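Sat 14:20. Reprocessing the chain from the morning session after the first attempt stalled halfway. Input below, unchanged.
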Amino acid sequence: MPGGRAGAWELRWKRRPRCAMKINALEEIWIIGVGQFGFLAFDRLSKSGRERRFVLVDPVKKNLLRCKGPNVTLEQSDGVAFLEQRLNASHTPDWIIPALPVHLAAEWFLLRLGPDRLRRVTLPPEIETLLPNPIRGSDGNIYVSHADFRCPDDCAEPRDICTVTGEPRKRNMFEILGEINLPPFKALAIRSHQLGAGIGGYRPKHLFALFDKVEQTTGQLLVSTACRCHGVITGLERIGH
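Finished this time. Tokens:
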């Protein structure tokens, strides 16, 4: 990713100590990446009528400066590096919204464990026969979707039907990706939960739980992030002990 660490702007509040207890605190959301989708997430959630605290992370200053408001902190930083530097068991937000053009969970695992313990591997071509509408990206990840059309950016992700076709919803993508049977790969997935129309994120505790599984495993892995309809898969290999 382009960009690096830089200063932070804080609006209306000072950062609490990392060890502070979140008692009667505002719900805190970290939006990692403030391009088209990150800005959309901030704009919709900040106008929802619910008081929240936002931390917005992007290496591009002009992206951040669009997002002024109460209870907002702007961090000019690489998103993966920010997560590695700032996320720990004593300092977690309520939600993390990944909205940058990389697979945040996989990249965080790679940075956190280092190249001597975790490395990227190529996803085998036969995996594509097990997936709905797979597209292999230039980064080596595979992107999947139940839709063969462009979904609206304000889909509410109802449980039972597709909002575009009106047809019954297919099996949840996070379940499909978490149960891929492709030896010697082991499938591990984190679910992206709906926080608002077209907005998905996960709890830090679920990200840490997935990291623990990666750390405790050896061999090749299919690490995925997915909601009900869409997902991304990265091939990784845990090496050493």
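Residues 204-216 form the longest helix (13 residues).
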